[in-house]
Amino acid sequence: MSEVETTEIRSYPMARSCPLRPPGEYEQLREARPVARHLLPSGRPVWLITSHELARRVLADPRISSDRTHPGFPLPYPIEDPEALRGLFRFSQSLIGLDPPEHTARRRLIIPEFTVKRVQSLRPRIQEIVDGRIDDMLAQGSRADLVQALALPVPSLALCELLGVPYADRDFFESRTKVQINHNSSLEERQKANGELMSYLDELVATKEEVPGDDLIGRLIVKNREAGTLEHGELVALAALLLIAGYETTANMIGLGVIGLLENPGQLATLADDPSLASQAVDELLRYFSISDTAGSRVALADIEIGGETIPAGEGVMALSLAGNWDPAAFSEPERLDITRDVRQHLAFGHGPHQCIGQNLAKMELEVTLTTLFRRIPTLRLAVPAEELPYKGDANTYGVYELPVSW
């Protein structure tokens, strides 16, 4: 088969016939051509990886790059102006858009903030935040939009406190982030939202450089003075990355996690009977929904032979985590939600040098939020059928825009 042949599947992202399951094309590709060349709506070629094993292999390969400004990087939308591209992805060049050794040095600077021990020290405060939001829900009646009442506020408030960002400004950065992750936003809208967010954080970081506080940004400033790793602008970009990546993904997983458990009452009952399964339940929900396929986007720096195909240097690669996490070769009966299974090798947080640095925090927030919600409101139920909910098919990160529930 020619290495420049394109598959018959033409559109990406692919439509789902069921909002709680992967697109049917993922299974077709995995069985027929787990490494398949495709064209994005932007016109750029991309190689879709749908096998769990091959996705892990690609994501750990030093011959692929995370540089979003590379001309072959698989952006879903066209951006031809190099300067616009660099400006739009300034935040990514602080960490996720870098390759070793630059990436290694910067990751080493920040990783102490997200160790298991450090994250567990935050658990009492996360518990207070979750209980406070549920108190407000119960005080306002027997019905709520769980996205606005719980899913967004919990990670948003937690992250604001962690970073030292005023919570009163959450509407500002949440609204700008929504524009940047929406597939339908124009280049001008993305640039405006990005510029406003970066200007806000530039002032915030400058203030903290004068008097570093006991928060993540303040501690990074102090560490960086000793290490000399980051310039001011790079600190601003890193703050933007943590702010953007830290709450939107967790918020979406809270909503989908609630839907997943309510749609599988047997699994919810198992969790209620044995709360020690909470960590496994979170990992299984992460596997089941795998909300960010685009996180596995890379570009080949050399010809790479994998899965019987040759990915030419300069072409894009997408290791689709949702496809890999529903690979029956890795997880038996992947369509079945099973909170007792061992899924520690799932791809929801990626794999390799760019595996999500904040995964310990995200998992802890999910564990506390989901277990507390169902313990305190055991009669919680969806107010509308799951298939009628407004899902985020137009965003980089999958989730729901609204989640009406009652009890």
Account of the protein in words:
The protein has a single domain, classed as Cytochrome p450. The strands form three sheets. Strands 1-2-8-5-3 form a five-stranded mixed beta sheet. Helix 8 packs antiparallel against helix 12, helix 10 packs across helix 12 and helix 12 packs parallel to helix 16. It contains 16 helices and ten strands. It is α+β, with helices and mostly antiparallel strands and 407 residues long. The N terminus is likely disordered. It is 48% helix and 8% strand. A hairpin with a 5-residue loop joins strand 1 and strand 2. InterPro entries: Cyt_P450, Cyt_P450_B, Cyt_P450_CS, Cyt_P450_sf. This is Cytochrome P450. One of its GO terms (molecular function) is iron ion binding. Keywords: Heme, Iron, Metal-binding, Monooxygenase, Oxidoreductase. It comes from Streptomyces glebosus.
Sequence-ordered SSE layout with sheet pairings:
Blueprint: H1 24-32, E1 35-39, E2 45-49, H2 52-59, E3 64-65, H3 82-88, H4 102-110, H5 116-120, H6 123-139, E4 143-145, H7 146-151, H8 153-163, H9 170-181, H10 187-210, H11 216-227, H12 232-262, H13 265-273, H14 278-289, E5 297-300, E6 304-306, E7 309-311, E8 316-319, H15 321-325, H16 359-376, E9 381-382, E10 404-406
Parallel strand pairs: 2-8
Antiparallel strand pairs: 1-2, 3-5, 4-10, 5-8, 6-7, 9-10
